[in-house]
Amino acid sequence: MILLIACYELGHPPLSLAWPLAFLRRAGFAAEALDLSVQPFAPELAARADLIAIAVPMHTALRLGVQAARRARSANPRAHLCFYGLYAGLNADGLFREGLADSVAAGETEALLLELARALRTGAGPEAVLGLTTPARRAAPHLARLDFPLPDRTGLPPLTEYARYRQNGDLHLAGYVEASRGCRHTCRHCPITPVYGGRFFIVPADTVLADIAQQAAAGARHITFGDPDFLNGPGHALRLARALHARWPEMTFDFTTKVEHILEHHRLFPEFARLGATFVVSAIESASDTVLARLNKGHTAADIDAALDILDAAGLVLQPTLVAFTPWTTLDDYLAQLEFIRARGLQRHIPPVQLSIRLLLPPGSPLLRAPDAAEWLGDLDAENLTYRWRHPDPRMEALYRHVAARVAEAEARGEAEEAVFESIRALAYAAAGRTAPDDDAPTRIRPAPPRLTENWFC
């Protein structure tokens, strides 16, 4: 028996389980799955498994996956343990060093998991699987186009266990699909870059729509297109949105795209809104052109303003995501970002946790080779699976600690986002030895936007 384990995927029903389940079951393998974000670890399942595979598409999932691997090892020392997903290949050395993994799969991993299952069944061993990384052999990410089956959600937790879509005070069940994988962009801080290297793969529209159909039948009234960038293939994206609306005219949806794509494809957004889109996630990251250039984001601070105007005109909400603290973010940059948020009335559009996000540097990150890395880069933090770094300005390190503590306190108390924002603004101005100005208050704070009940973070 094969046991697949997911740990955390931002409150979404995990495709990291549904897709490999489909590949394995199509080939005749008995496979079970656990989502530890909503289910307890099941040692009795682990004890029966010949192969235990842990999905780590994001850093939080990796940290939780390490804990799951230890429990799996304890429950079944004989099982082959494989990590798969974006953060698996980046952290292969550490996973092997700690005895947490017998193999690691990166890239388009379903094919590797299927071949691994076959190799273990025949006794050939993991070394027989080309593209699979083992302690004895490092392999490049597997980047070949797959024959995607319909994701198999049989036996997975129901949508009621996951994040809801909130609009105008009402909550609706939300589904999750991906219309493409990988990304044609190479942002230097993104974990997709060292794995996919600018490549992306389209998922056939019929497969995506069939997955939407099975989630709609399960009660979904909103769909998240979870592609790294929905507009890497704009024609594909528009065809899907039109087909979705034609079949489910009351269904709403959201998607993620880059600022530069909002500008490039600005004519598409009014139609996306008519087809049911309600908000767009975009990694604006910073209001500093210096930081944006360091991250190779492909946009400027002025572009963020223009993108917001485009979405406003289309009647769409922007949900920005940030990397608020980097080695290059000055205190003035942080203040400027807060003032931009305030001037545009976005306090309710940016969850306070975004104002505390600190740059992650996993092994393999292109930023580890930055020309000035010696000025800020520290050692690998093996426990937290990222490289340490320290800001050259100690005020920024202190501000990070204060903001993170304030956000944690506010979340525990359930404080209003705009009040938390103002308290963080006061902390930032205090760090600069200044008093926050109050003579340039915005004329309005935008109303609470449509969003999912689980906040986005990396």
SSE arrangement:
Blueprint: E1 2-6, H1 15-26, E2 31-35, H2 43-48, E3 51-55, H3 59-75, E4 80-84, H4 86-90, H5 92-97, E5 103-105, H6 109-122, E6 164-167, E7 170-177, E8 180-182, H7 192-196, E9 200-202, H8 205-217, E10 222-225, H9 234-247, E11 252-256, H10 259-264, H11 269-274, E12 277-285, H12 289-294, H13 301-314, E13 317-322, H14 331-343, E14 377-381, E15 386-389, H15 394-413, H16 417-431, E16 451-452
Parallel strand pairs: 1-2, 1-3, 3-4, 4-5, 7-10, 10-11, 11-12, 12-13
Antiparallel strand pairs: 6-7, 6-16, 8-9, 14-15
The CATH superfamily of the largest domain bears the name tm_1862 like domain
Looking across the biggest beta sheet, what order are the strands in? 13-12-11-10-7-6-16
Largest sheet: 7 strands, mixed
Average pLDDT reading: 96
Count of DSSP H/I helices: 16
CATH-scheme architecture of the largest domain:
Alpha-Beta Horseshoe
Low-pLDDT segments: none
Write down the oligomeric state. Answer: single chain
Description of the molecule:
This protein has 458 residues and is of the alpha/beta class. The chain folds into 2 domains: 2-128, 3-Layer(aba) Sandwich (Rossmann fold), CATH 3.40.50.280; 163-452, pyruvate-formate lyase- activating enzyme (Alpha-Beta Horseshoe), CATH 3.80.30. It is 38% helix and 17% strand. The chain contains 16 helices and 16 strands. Strands 13-12-11-10-7-6-16 form a 7-stranded mixed β-sheet. A 5-stranded parallel β-sheet has the order 2-1-3-4-5, sandwiched between helices. A two-stranded antiparallel ribbon has the order 8-9. Helix 8 (205-217) packs parallel to helix 9, helix 14 (331-343) runs antiparallel to helix 16 (417-431) and helix 15 (394-413) runs antiparallel to helix 16 (417-431). The longest helix has 20 residues, at 394-413. The mean pLDDT is 96.
